[in-house]
Amino acid sequence: MASKLHQLQSKAVAASQFVAKHGCVYYKQLLEQNKQYIQNPPTVEKCSELSKQLFYTRLASIPGRYESFWKEMDAVKQLWKRKDELRVEDAGIAALFGLELYAWFCVGEIVGRGFTFTGYYV
């Protein structure tokens, strides 16, 4: 156990040395590549204005997303009505979608709890 702790500590030291050596260059390069997104002057007022713009823009997009949702639901209803004509590809897509839902909800919950399983005694 002590040797693993020592290995982890040495890796952490190596990583922090790498960041200390190359972090500033990476930071400047990142800012240079994305300077079109930087607002000048960088003040608290400007940040507040941008956050309000983002909030109200997202709020204004709700009706369009709501309409898209109901179009998708209508497509699912049509597929369900014609379930006798269901192809293997459509069934595969539905299975992958179900697997993705499982991953987002169940596995995400497990990861959020720090990879602990509640209710199980192992």
TrEMBL record:
GO terms for molecular function: proton transmembrane transporter activity. InterPro entries: ATP_synth_F0_gsu_mt. It is found in: Mitochondrion membrane. Keywords: ATP synthesis, CF(0), Hydrogen ion transport, Ion transport, Membrane, Mitochondrion, Transport. Its main location: mitochondrion. Pfam families: ATP-synt_G. One of its GO terms (biological process) is proton motive force-driven ATP synthesis. GO terms for cellular component: mitochondrial membrane; proton-transporting ATP synthase complex. Signal peptide: none annotated. This is Uncharacterized protein. It comes from the Eukaryota. The keyword Transport applies. Belongs to the ATPase g subunit family.
